[in-house]
Design a protein that fits this description.
The chain is α/β, with parallel strands linked by helices. It has eight helices and 13 strands. The protein has helices at residues 15-25, 52-62, 76-81, 83-103, 135-147, 171-180, 198-210, 227-237, and strands at 6-10, 31-36, 45-46, 66-69, 107-111, 153-157, 161-162, 185-188, 192-193, 196-197, 215-218, 225-226, 245-248. Helix 1 links the parallel strand 1 (6-10) and strand 2 (31-36). This is dTDP-4-dehydrorhamnose reductase.
């Protein structure tokens, strides 16, 4: 449609990107283009955001007014095992995209993480100083610093994202699958955060950008739960009430990357508080 605002979603094959893609595409006033990195997805275009030439070609072809950037290496342990390779995706890639966006004066919306904090004194609002514990959090912190040098950047920090999406990227799907296949389930009682529904995250992100928001914004769900409580709630809502969950400390799981314990996020901006919670998902699809 001539003259319609042009939106580019880089990483539209992921949980957050998919929710953004769906929400934006539902608005007939917009022209929406989505990309994928390594996971080929119908309707999306391949784009390696670490390749400056490819990014420049894509921006020249699509001429976006708003660039949404949820694409990342979000596997915290994979980042810990391969800090250099993951930094190319989590730092070099976003910086390359920012340069292309800035050249065209496009709004840039970058998705970060609650893992920029150490979890000593959560929940954290937008003014709290960052102090990451692992490579993933450090990479996201550095990307935030670089991208915020461009005045039309919005940094959105969610936490513990979940969705209705089937497949192993979704924590709910993985947990329900594990329960139904009688795999042992262990969950940390001492790791606390604020689970965030992907659909509501996308909707509120779009609202903030439409309002002209700039800077850092925390968008999370209304509940603050331990990983154990989250696991209990998911299995109950999915109708799996006879499943044994072993309560453990995070240290006993011996994960490669440290995680914040007393974590989670809150926002100073009441206009953008998400009210949707786990209970609002269509649970029939998981039963």
């Amino acid at each position: 449609m001539p003259g319609s605002p042009r939106h580019l979603v880089i990483g539209a094959s992921g949980q957050v990107g998919g929710a953004l893609w769906k929400a934006l595409s539902a608005d007939s006033r917009l022209t929406v283009t989505g990309t994928y990195g390594s996971r080929e997805t119908p309707g999306l275009y391949p784009l390696d955001m670490t390749d400056a030439t490819r990014v420049e070609e894509a921006f020249s072809a699509w001429r976006p007014d708003v660039v949404w950037l949820p694409a990342a290496q979000a596997d915290v342990d994979a980042c810990q095992r391969d800090p250099d390779g993951s930094a190319r995706i989590n730092v070099t890639g976003p910086y390359t995209v920012m340069q292309a966006a800035a050249e065209r004066r496009a709004t840039l919306v970058f998705y970060s993480t609650d893992y920029v904090f150490d979890g000593e004194a959560g929940p954290y609002d937008e003014t709290a100083p960052t102090h990451p514990l692992q490579h993933y959090g450090s990479q996201k912190t550095e990307a935030e610093r670089l991208l915020l040098q461009y005045e039309k950047t919005v940094v959105i920090r969610p936490a513990w994202i979940y969705s209705r999406e089937p497949g192993p990227r979704n924590f709910i799907w993985r947990l329900v699958h594990a329960a139904r296949t009688h795999q042992p389930i262990r969950a940390a009682v001492d790791q606390i955060s604020t689970p965030t529904p992907a659909d509501a995250l996308a909707t509120m992100s779009i609202r903030a950008v439409d309002d002209g928001f700039r800077g850092i914004l925390h968008l999370v769900g209304p509940e603050r739960l331990s990983r154990y409580q989250l696991t209990e709630n998911i299995l109950r809502l999915a109708g799996l009430t006879n499943v044994t969950i072993e309560p453990v400390t995070l240290a006993l799981l011996k994960l490669p990357a440290p995680r914040p314990l007393n974590g989670g996020l809150i926002t100073q901006y009441s206009t953008y508080r998400i009210t949707e919670s786990l209970h609002d998902l269509p649970w029939d699809q998981f039963r």
